[in-house]
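Thread: quick sanity check before group meeting

JM: Hey all, I'm pulling together slides for Thursday and realized we never actually wrote out the predicted structure for the chain we discussed last week. Dropping the sequence here so it's in one place. If anyone has concerns about the input, flag it before I start.
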Amino acid sequence: MDAKKSLLIYVVEDNKIYNRLVCEYLKKQDYKNVTSFHSGKECVKRVANGESPDIVIQDYHLEDSTGIEVLQNVKKHSKNTEFIFLTANENMDVAINTIKYGAFDYIIKDNFALKKVEIKMGKIAQLLELQKRNRITKQAMIAAVFFLILIVLFSMLHILFNAFGLK
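JM (edit): ok, ran it. Output follows.
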């Protein structure tokens, strides 16, 4: 899938071993553009400096912040970035709040967590592709309407010129 090669993915996990595990798993699944962060502040700083990740995979509890704080700060600069929380926190209220603040999904770390993340990333890639196609279709429709308006205007001018004998 070509989308895998073009997606910019951030992994925000303060546990260095798990961070590396997630990044290596994604790379083995042909995701080519994976950037690792060990703190939420590093991630937010990179986005504030102009990068716009397509997907952020992050833990909820980070040493320097919560996942919701990272989500809110990233969304200020990159509103289309999708978030997948990958966490050991099984608190239902926390899960609901992450979704409420705009997370795409909330996945509990277990033996199948990385496979679940991969499936969700595939859905995000499909969603991004559909959004791109919709933008292109919308632009094409606007251009077609503009062209039709021009044809109608020139036809009306032609009719007016002929009606008044102007050449």
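AS: nice. Strands lie at 8-12, 33-37, 55-58, 82-87, 105-108. The longest helix spans residues 113-163.
JM: adding both to the slides.
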